[in-house]
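Q: My collaborator sent me two sequences in one message, no labels, and asked for predicted structures for both. Can we handle them in order? The first one she listed is below.
A: Yes, handling them in the order given. First sequence, followed by its structure tokens:
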Amino acid sequence: MTIPEFAILGHPNEGKSSVLSTLAEDDSVRVSPFPGETTECRSFPVIIDGREVLRFTDTPGFQNPARVLSEMKRRSGAGENPLAEFRRFAATVPELHDDYELLGPLERGAGIIYVVDGSRPVRGVDRAEMEILRLTGKPRMAIINCKENTEEFLEEWKMEFRKNFNSNRVFNAHRATYAERILLLEALKSIDQDWQKPLSQVVAAFRKDWAARNAATVDIIAGLLTDCLSLQLSENIASERDAEKCREKLLATYSETLARKEKIAHERIRGLFKHNIFHYELPPHSVLHAELFDERTWQLLGMTKKQVMIAGGLGGAAIGAGLEMATFGHGLGLFTAVGTLAGALGALFGGESFSGKAHVMGIPLGGERVQVGPAKSIDMLFVLLNRSLLYYRHTINWAHGRRDYNKAGQAMLTAEAEQGFTGRWSAGNIKICHDFFKTVGSRSGADDKEAARFRELLTGTLQEISESE
């Protein structure tokens, strides 16, 4: 199969390289605020399963569109190929170097993706560029990439594009989600009938590859939960006088170990989505900036009151209980829904004697051998799970064309999203989590059937997050 190629064309500093970087998922593309940085064409292949399925080519910006248009019109008579004739002429004219270079991919058969900054009005030079591309006779799509947060000129651009292009789309290269990238690729299929079959195969390959990445993400998250929920640390003590110091030491180690495991898992998720060169930063307001055992984390990402009641009715797992654990001399808190001290003690300990059997976050502490873990509160599962889902959402929606967040222009995440993805889960989904939690905590480890149901729930959740625009 001939590999489809699209040349990314447009005026200098209109966002061409950002669009290419986002579409190709390649953050090695040079993106500069200064016009004229690209002087030679450079192709970026899209590799799936070791095979190139699509190619995007970065090009210099138009430098002399009025002269190029004039020269091409002179060569557009019957039987002539104005594109080839112009390039033959321009090859010997130094001042036309960039214009000669940018049209090269079109002469070898590439389709056109024309990028404009839709936050400014249409100018005469833009109309000249559009007419040049029309004269090439190549399949072409126009992309409106608004560099500023304004839609004042969108209709004006769309009207011009309808005259000269097979298709046009609004596409913000700095904020495009996976769903928006797929929609753009789907739209490319319609710009020329001859391209429909190969591009359908490309889109199918993209979807299959994304499903494989999601499956790998499920493996990572399920592994993280299993490791963290089953984590157990212990140490012998010589006397009760040593117990408090030992508990504090074990809790600190426990917290550090969980944080390290979580960080490694999140970095592996990041790697699946090809954020390898530029440092990915979370939005400054994200709850993920809080520590795992920070009060805000447990308030936002733990179970809802209704879910606490559902899980409590299922039995077999302690439920978190709004108890400030400084009572035990520890600076950690358990921040969820019951709220009274009596309710907290009942939920944490199930009516058992406090002495020698104290728990922190449902984690048993006690005896002459002080032990921390494994977790007995299912709330730990929900906090870790929601943090991973939030990280996944941030990662897949971090466009590769971005290099840093514009704090003033970055849309704030909705309160619903920041409060976790499990907040609206049904009783059936809570039971799946409950059963998985119980099997992870058992000596035999996670049951295959319960683990499979939990993984299926995770797979559907990741797909739902992926498809939200």
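Q: And the one she listed second?
A: Here it is, processed independently of the first:
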Amino acid sequence: MKIYYQESEHECGVSVTRSLINHFLGREVSRSEIFDQLNITERGISIFELETINRKYGIHLEAYKLSIKELQANPLQGFFVMLLYRNNAEHFVIAKKTQSTCVLYDSELGRFRVDYQQLASIFSGKILLIEKIDSSGKSRILVNYSQKEISILKPSRLLRNISLELTVFFLLIISFVTNKLVFEDVIQSQYLQNIAPIIFIAILVIFIWALVEYLKSIYYFKDKQWYCKELYSILLNRLERKKNYFWSKLSKNQYLMIQEYIETMSLFYSELLSTMISSVMIASLIIFYLIYLQSWFLTLIIVLIFTKTVNFYILHKLDNSGVGKLLKHKVNIQKLIFKLNQFLKYEWDFSKFSFLNSSLSTEITEWQLTDKNFQLKKTLFLKLNFFMTQLINCSIYFIGAYLCFSRSISISHLILAGIAYMQLSSALDKLILNGLNWAKYKNSVNHFKHLLFNDNLPITMSEAYIFPLEPRLIEIKGLSYHNGEKTIFHNLNLSIYPSSFISGPSGIGKSTLYKLISAKLPDAVNSIFINGTRLSSLWMSSLNKLVIYQNSKSEALELDWLKLKQSLSEERLKTVLTLAKQIGIYDYQKLKTKELSDGQRQFVNFLYLCTLSRKILLLDETTSHINSAIREIVFKKLFPLIFEKNFVICSEHDLNLSQFFINHIDLRQISLIS
């Protein structure tokens, strides 16, 4: 494996990609070619971006999460990519296992060998396996997610906003012409009777100008809301169709930043893009006008553009260094506030409270100091830009005064030139602002695309199998599963029929089994069969709708009393309402789920199950907080209704409840046999 050494910090992903392409495809790819396709920040690139860039060249990487013990026990063959955490940063290396060590191909340190004890201190818990190599080129089109666009930009809205910007500009031109009339027709001719209608026209133009500015702001606000809604709608729709292991592959804090990404994109689509286009058009018109008035103004325009360009470059560099740090502090503050809130709700320990409080205070202080330093520098350069702009503005009047005395330009044209210059400066400032937001927008789009286009479930009927109704049998064949700390199942063979009660001591694997059956853990999709069909062959969205997994902490949904009434016989409905009253829930009461106790929450979840049919219900201690007397009535009188319409697998600590089920599976005995 050839090592391409990195030339700067945080470009280990580029070097790893070049090494993989060279080794598996026999191609030399330049550093700049990879760089041009990535958005490398001071934190480097994420797992998503590493997967995406390699898929463009036909190398299919798939990320997995595992512990150092599981890595040591796993019989991996050949090369794979490992994510390390070194020097307070994530770092990609290529690795290969030997009998007792790992050989690392590091773009910083070269080739060296480490044992697992040494590796444990820097291993992040994530690796990327090389699933497939496709050198045909066909794959590069199919998996090139960066080519997929988020097509929500509405040309009609964009054209309307550009039209409003140009309308404001043309009203400004009318205002210029009015000023010109005041000077030429009133002052120079000394004919004062025309001043009243000219003032009236000027006031009318200013009123219309202000009205259009108001309408523009309203449309910008409405468009931003519309784009936010569309982006959230697209995202939430895609999140419902993600593979389960998708979430473990998100880069640090990426999911917490979704709102920031969407707001940035919405602002760009609704306002910044139209402002950018209209600013270019307005600046071009003003430049032509000033050159038409006097060719001397071209020199000042060049100086102005050069000044603005330098200012943009400095602010862009400042933004790159400061914005990322500020966002990181904001995310850390959000996480600490959430931790503090959870702690105050569910536990108490003054030492822990003091520690969380101190951590939050430190993080806020760091954020304030970073923000202060960033804003002071930014303000300094903005004021320098203001000083240079005003200096050039004065130069226009100095040159104009000279030209006026030499009768090369009139006073009215001189005033118009000064006003036009200020508008040119304003248009260039808007372009600078948009330029600063452009990098932020592109970064947001890249991350948003990763969330949309990676690890999606199939959406066409031809891609997968539609599951038939009435699940009758779940079979587990030769299942082995290691959770990173210990082996939970080894060569497990099991047939599960409807109305099964699963028992076993804590840690035996009841919850793990449920997660494997519901494909929450993808490791066993080839070992589990429903009605004889392998999980990996099922249409995943159909499987997700078929299987319902609830545990003791499951959140309660708003109960549809009408649907419940339609699902139960009169006798059973009466029993339900009687039990509900005993637990503090009254007939057809609109429930506020946040105000429910744990027992009420579990009872409401159970009432929801009564409305379902033709589902596989995986119930993991779902009645543990319900009063024991009420729980027994629930199992005796209401569970038979659920059995009639659904495939139920249940586990509870109270083994006496197994009498209400047809089948009883003791996982401890089965594990011993396996």
